[in-house]
Structures are given as structure tokens and as C-alpha cells.
Amino acid sequence: MSLWKTLYAMVWLAFLQIVLGVVDVPGFKMFLVSGHVVLGLVILGLAHYDNIEIKKTGAPERLKRTAKATAILATIQVLLGIFLLVNLMLIMNDLLAGVVGFLHLVTALAIITQASSVATAYDMWEEKEFTKS
User: Fold this and answer.
1) Which of 127, 130, 120, 105 is nearest to 10 (CA)?
2) Which of 39, 92, 101, 110 has its CA 20 to 30 A from that of 116?
3) Nearest residue to 36 (alpha-carbon basis) of 98, 78, 3
4) Is residue 73, in this structure, part of any structural domain at all?
5) Dihedral (CA of 26, 31, 35, 37) sign
6) What total of structural domains would you count in the chain?
7) Rounded Cα gap, residues 39 and 73, in angstroms
8) What is the pLDDT of residue 95?
9) What range defines the domain where residue 119 resides?
């Protein structure tokens, strides 16, 4: 699959993951959580794959740094998610879970923002749609 396709796929998967994370349908919570977890792992893999593949190109350094930051955020996101999943299963600490949940949401928004930026910039760079000023 082309790199630009995996970059845009990550944006849409991140969007779907956020939707699954904020929707609460009675009776389907564990299905939604399971889908959210699976998408999170796919996004983690895509973020690191995209980072590795962009490093191999002649893309601008700023784009490479942004892709690396997105991969780091995805890794942090999984760690936050693991805490929330354990807390959901064991109901340990509501206050701490609220803080971690907020950080999880903020990180998700940062990931989708960064992933969108990387996808668009890489696509434009690959198509030679912009030049140095």
C-alpha cells in the first residue's frame, strides 16, 4: 500500500476510534471498548510504520519530526489506555481515571491533528505541490 494511503487511513481510523471512545450505547459498552482497543493497536502500528517509511524518503525534516512525534504520542496513548482499561475492569480510582481519561482524550485529539498534518503535507510533497520559498 502506498505511504500516502496509510497516512490517510490513520487519520480516519483515529477519527473512528475517538467516536467509539465517546459513544455509550447501553448493552454494547464492552464491544465498543474492544473495538476502541483494537483500533488503538492498529493506529499504534500505523504510526510507527509511517514514521519508519517517511524516514526513508527525501521528505522535509519537519515532516519527519512530526511523524516521529505522532508515533511517540501513539505509544503514550496506548499506555494511558492500558491504565483506563485496567481501571474499567477493576474500578480502582475514579479521580485518577478521570484525569487519565482527560489526558487520553487530549492525546487522541493531538494524534488526529498530527496525523492529518503529516498526511496532507506528505501528499503535497510527493505530488510536488509546494516549493521552497
Assistant:
1) 120
2) 101
3) 78
4) yes
5) positive
6) 1
7) 15
8) 87
9) 3-126
Cβ proximity of 96 and 133 under 8 Å: no
Name the grid cell of 28. Answer: 454494547
- Interatomic CA distance for residues 24 and 45, integer angstroms: 26
Q: Which residues of 18-53 are buried (b: 16+ CB within 10 A; e: fewer)?
A: bebbeeeeeeeeeebbebbbebbeebbebbbbbbeb
Query: Is residue 23 assigned to a domain?
Result: yes
> Cα separation of 35 and 79, whole Å?
17
pTM of the model: 0.89
CA dihedral 35, 41, 42, 44 (to 10 degrees): 140
Q: What is the pLDDT of residues 62-94, one digit of tens each?
A: 999 999 999 999 999 999 999 999 988 888 778
Instruction: Tally Cβ neighbours within 10 Å of residue 81.
Output: 23
Residue 35 lies in a domain: yes
Domain annotation covers residue 132:
no
